[in-house]
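seq as requested:
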Amino acid sequence: MPFETMPDTARVWIYQANRKFTEEEKSLIGSRLTAFCNQWNTHGNRMPTSFDIKYDQFIILSVDESQLGASGCSIDSSVRTLRELDEVLHVNLLDQGKISFINQDEITISSLSQIKDYIQEGQLTSNTQVFNPTVQRKEDLKDKWLIPARESWLGRYFSN
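struct tokens:
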């Protein structure tokens, strides 16, 4: 299914690369994920699924669970597919310790250990737009995925 036609209630999983994808890599991702989505199932039943690539750096998988929920095995199969892409592309998709924010119209990726440096240098402020990796529904991509740092868990680093 085209990602745009997935219902707003569809579940999403966001995987972030540690760099932007090249056009060739996006083509490879597209072909591999199309093949995966065309056969993605839970307990032998096909699920309405899709994917999208955002900002040339994020892969978003989506499943419409309204009639059939994703099982642990089906989720494991998606992670295997992402792991295979990660091994081919060397983009660190499965590392959940990355923090991403928009800095001068570019996406900056940081480890937790570097965050305080970005704050002290003024590159990350309470108003900086950060990517919230905890979104779980397609509708959340609209207004809960990219939020001011003060509204994220990073808010504790800024005085009120």
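The mean pLDDT is 88.
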